[in-house]
Design brief:
CATH architecture of the largest domain in chain B: 3-Layer(aba) Sandwich
Strand order of the largest sheet of chain B: 2-1-3-5-9
Chains: A alpha+beta (420), B alpha/beta (319), C alpha/beta (144)
CATH class of chain A: Mainly Alpha
Mean pLDDT of chain A: 89
Distance between the termini of chain B: 58 Å
Number of helices of chain B: 12
Mean pLDDT of chain B: 91
Largest interface: A-B, 70 and 64 residues
Number of strands of chain A: 13
CATH superfamily of chain A: Cytochrome-c3 Hydrogenase, chain B
Shape of chain A: globular
Oligomer: heterotrimer
Largest sheet of chain A: 4 strands, mixed
Strand order of the largest sheet of chain A: 5-4-3-8
Order of helices and strands of chain B: EHHEHEEHEHHEEEEHHHHHH
Radius of gyration of chain B: 22 Å
Structural class of chain A: alpha+beta
Number of domains of chain A: 1
Low-confidence stretches of chain B: 42-46
Number of helices of chain A: 13
Helix content of chain B: 25-40%
Radius of gyration of chain A: 22 Å
Bound molecules: iron/sulfur cluster, FE2/S2 (inorganic) cluster
Shape of chain B: globular
Structural class of chain B: alpha/beta
CATH class of the largest domain in chain B: Alpha Beta
Low-confidence stretches of chain A: 387-400, 416-420
Distance between the termini of chain A: 42 Å
CATH superfamily of the largest domain in chain B: NADH:ubiquinone oxidoreductase-like, 20kDa subunit
Chain lengths: 420, 319, 144
């Protein structure tokens, strides 16, 4: 989708309103699928089963076992709905082929529209149910709330997210808003201006770069006021916005901030809550768009007329602000590309969060249990399914190594996680 | 019957193949009923140690997606080969390099320079590049070696079966698991989960006379939804691509890009396509050919979109 | 590149160009022995796969020769050659293969001298260019 938008810009072509809405509808479905997968398969095990549950049970199957097969079925069903909507419109749910510069390759008929509407209605209900589940299981358990609000899971940085003209969260379009550690707006840019706001730092020990706010500069892996580090993805988007553009999501948004003590929230585990607020927004938006008269219109594409040269496209990926920047020759053949993808934004914060959690959780002289190690991993898991897949599979395996050093710098304990 | 040991792994991959496995939806519970998933996915060193401890051949089925881009991908591929009875190259990347292998039109140095030094958002005054070994006060940090070339899985280890697609359609995944469960497997080396006929065979569009007066790029034309896209001048790779996907892209009004790979017996999908495209141009003179070819701007990238690693030429050379 | 002896593969159509080569031989024309001839029934039979395979297996240059347009024994065959060639060249350039390495010529059965000239000239061109360096696949350089 970001590349499609970058291509609109490269060719200087306007996208007709129907096509814009179709793209946003498709993209809302994408969020529904992704957020359901992330929350239920990767985050829920920690909360539903508990951080120190047996690793063999701390997985999606364990969750299904505990909350009931019926709910498991609902999870699968709604994720499947979202995938079906994408495939119906774009040929394939993964690697859709339907976005073209100037619009989309296929429209939606009335019959399809009402199918989407029906599924969307169900998704809204399911999103509400998920928030309720979170409330019942997590928020009503003081122990969990204390964990969420504890210092080991607090990372004070700037935040970034795409917003509409009213500064409400938007996944598909708008301008990127940046707020500082106190939640005050310190920048707002349209895609073409991204280079004035974001830079990337290179370390020799990682293939992935470390983005930071250009106007502040690279301040190292430091949090707190004045840091150049920012975060993206669900919690950051909510922090960087003034609210949600749909009514139920807005309610959920307000509830989250009033419970957690106002904006911005620096508690990284609140990302799971924010993710559910977004799930509700995406579902509501899906429903709204499926009811929009214009969505079944015929005018779905403008043929580009101008000479292509350069363009930037930005959307919110589930894992954070996604920037595509292309330069092309006069035939539109790409000559240079620059991408800053969702999780890359959080690369620095992920390291910082893990370190912080480890330092808070592992205490001198205390036995290090699997549960404690899992609590370190939870810091990681709040960010990215791609990374968190790697750190929390169905079986709670974790490729994490913790080496504890004594005061003299000698390793006293070297612990890795095992399945058995 | 004893449960199968099933492993899923991603090497140089986008994650789409793993999402495709999730897309079997409620069948995932059926899979969990017949198989212990011993690995999905793995990463980093201690996991390697876990698998390394398993006896050779103790994994019944390994679905391996992703290409081989770095030394870690290769090591894991070797290990999983040893531990697995049946190793499946799952998806275009594992089979023929897929999208990552388009990078074979460049080499390692080009890529590192572009990413870490030239990109406009990068600030790297000291010219730092990622290193395979990096000393720190608490020990060395290691990164896998980034190869000069993106390999297909079978360029690194022996592969038993191939399941094509970018990603394979979920229906096929379930078929493969069932085939292994029932022991009802085709001869080794077979492509599973696709047809032996071309996509055109499966395609419902009206086909008439293939004589092309002009090729278009997909953003340049609004096509008739009933007629063959190739006849309308879009570079549809249907004629040289295996059927089996259900004409997914065609259904979205877009031409096939060839992700199900070459037809049986075809060595090089791109060369074959070039050959068929030549034959259907409506031209007699070099000038007319030039005119028609205006709409074909990137034949290498288009015809080998999913198959660069296993193409005859493998990638670009610097002479 | 003094020591470099180019390896060139020539796909010659049976009815015209191969006969032309034959004539060159019978007429005892002098031309270099670098070109190894593969006889095909028609230049239209030369699938780009052949050319790519030749290059990938060690050829430094490839010649495709057929009847003059209009003279093809199978009427349309060499038009297919003519239509594929520019597209193939465009693609080869993307693979870093110099245009000069792959050449298309129309040579009739009567044009023994032209054949000899083409081989001489082409061998010289390739000698100047130097060997074609394939993209090597480390340690496993076998192709289908
Ligand atoms: S084959 Fe396609 S879906 Fe699978 S990993 Fe490769 S790019 Fe992704
Ligand atoms: S060329 Fe494409 S559109 Fe035409 S019949 Fe084949 S698959 Fe269908
Ligand atoms: S139509 Fe072609 S590119 Fe699309 S999924 Fe099928 S085989 Fe792959
Ligand atoms: S027979 Fe000579 S080119 Fe066709």
């Amino acid at each position: 989708m970001a590349s499609g938008k970058a291509n609109d810009a490269v060719f200087g072509v306007e996208v007709p309103p129907t096509a814009k809405k179709l793209r946003e509808l498709f993209y809302s479905a994408h969020f529904v699928h992704s957020h359901i997968a992330h929350f239920y398969a990767l985050a829920a095990p920690d909360f539903v089963m508990g951080p120190d549950a047996d690793p063999a049970e701390r997985n999606i199957l364990g969750v299904v076992g505990k909350v009931g097969l019926e709910i498991g079925g609902a999870v699968i069903k709604h994720r499947a709905y979202a995938q079906e909507i994408q495939a119906m419109l774009a040929g394939k749910a993964t690697h859709p082929v339907w976005v073209l510069p100037g619009g989309v390759s296929k429209g939606m008929n009335r019959e399809e529209r009402s199918q989407v509407e029906e599924k969307a209605r169900s998704c809204v209900e399911f999103a509400r149910f998920s928030l309720q589940l979170f409330e019942d299981v997590v928020l009503k358990n003081k122990g969990y709330v204390d964990v969420i609000l504890s210092d080991g899971y607090r990372l004070v940085t700037n935040y970034m997210g795409l917003v509409d003209d009213n500064n409400k969260v938007n996944f598909y379009d708008g301008r990127v808003r940046i707020v500082d550690t106190d939640g005050l707006e310190i920048g707002k840019y349209s895609p073409a201006e991204y280079l004035e706001y974001v830079s990337e730092h290179v370390e020799s020990w990682s293939y992935l770069k470390f983005p930071y706010l250009k106007k502040i500069g690279w301040t190292g892996f430091n949090e707190g006021r004045g840091t150049g580090i920012y975060q993206a993805a669900p919690l950051a988007r909510l922090n960087a916005s003034d609210g949600m553009a749909t009514p139920l999501a807005q309610e959920a948004y307000e509830k989250m901030y009033s419970t957690l003590g106002g904006k911005p929230v620096h508690a990284i585990l609140a990302a799971h809550w924010a993710r559910l607020v977004e799930l509700l927004y995406a579902s509501e938006r899906l429903l709204e768009l499926s009811r929009d008269e214009e969505i079944t219109g015929d005018h779905i594409r403008n043929i580009p007329a101008g000479t292509p040269n350069e363009g930037v496209g930005i959307i919110e990926a589930p894992r954070g602000t996604l920037t595509h920047h292309y330069k092309t020759d006069e035939r539109g053949l790409v000559t240079a590309v620059n991408l800053i993808v969702g999780t890359t934004n959080n690369h620095g914060p992920i390291y910082m969060a893990i370190k912080k959690a480890a330092m808070a959780i592992i205490k001198p002289g205390e036995e290090i249990s699997q549960g404690l190690l899992n609590m370190v991993e939870m810091a990681f898991r709040s960010y990215d399914p791609c990374f968190s897949c790697a750190t929390h599979t169905m079986f709670g395996e974790m490729p994490l190594q913790v080496v504890v050093y004594d005061a003299a710098g000698e390793p006293v304990k070297n612990l890795t996680r095992h399945v058995d | 019957m004893a449960k199968l040991n099933l492993a899923l792994y991603w090497a140089a991959a986008c994650g789409g193949c793993d999402v495709a496995v999730l897309d079997v939806n409620e069948k995932i519970l059926d899979i969990a009923a017949v198989a212990n998933i011993v690995l999905w996915p793995v990463a980093l060193d201690h996991k390697y140690a876990d698998v390394a401890k398993m006896a050779p051949g103790s994994i019944d089925l390994c679905l391996f997606n992703g290409a081989i881009r770095n030394s870690e991908n290769e090591q894991i591929a070797r290990m999983l080969r040893e531990k697995s009875q049946v190793l499946v190259a799952f998806g275009s990347c594992a089979i023929s390099g897929g999208i990552p292998a388009l990078a074979n039109l460049k080499d390692r140095d080009d890529i590192l320079r572009r990413v870490y030094l030239e990109t406009p958002s990068t600030v790297n005054p000291d010219g730092v590049l990622p290193q395979t070994g990096c000393p720190t006060p608490v020990g060395d940090l290691h990164l896998p070696e980034f190869y000069d070339f993106v390999y297909s899985l079978d360029q690194v280890v022996e592969v038993d079966y191939y399941v094509p697609g970018c990603p394979p359609t979920p229906q096929r995944i379930w078929e493969v698991v069932q085939a292994v469960v029932s022991g009802n497997l085709p001869p080794r080396g077979a492509t599973v989960g696709a047809l032996d006929k071309s996509l055109c065979d499966e395609c419902q569009r009206v086909k008439r006379d293939k004589k092309i007066k002009r090729f278009y790029r997909s953003h340049e034309i609004i096509t008739d939804p009933e007629l063959c896209l190739l006849e309308q001048g879009l570079l549809c790779m249907g004629p040289v691509t295996r059927g089996g996907c259900g004409t997914q892209c065609i259904n979205a009004n877009m031409p096939c890009r060839g992700c199900y790979g070459p037809l049986p017996g075809v060595t090089d999908q791109g060369a074959k396509y070039l050959s068929s495209i030549g034959a259907i141009m409506d031209a007699r003179t070099p000038e007319e050919v030039d005119e028609i070819m205006q709409g074909i701007v990137d034949p290498a990238g288009t015809f080998y979109r999913f198959g660069m690693s296993t193409s005859l030429l493998k990638g670009a050379v610097k002479q | 590149m003094v020591d470099f002896e180019p390896k060139i593969i020539g796909f010659l159509c049976n009815w015209c160009s191969y006969a032309g080569a034959d004539l060159a031989g019978v007429s005892r024309l002098q031309y270099p022995a670098n070109l190894r001839v593969v006889r095909v029934m028609c230049s239209g039979r030369v699938d780009p796969t052949f050319v790519f395979k030749a290059l990938s297996q060690g050829a430094d240059g490839v010649l495709i020769a057929g009847c003059h347009p209009g003279d093809c024994h199978y009427t349309e065959g060499n038009y297919n050659t003519l239509k594929r060639y520019p597209l193939m060249m465009q693609m080869l350039e993307q693979f870093g293969v110099e245009r000069e390495r792959v050449r298309m010529e129309w040579i009739s059965a009567a044009e023994g001298t032209i054949y000899a000239d083409v081989v001489r000239e082409f061998t010289e061109t390739i000698r100047q260019l130097g060997p074609y360096k394939r993209r090597l696949v480390k340690g496993r350089d076998q192709v289908g």
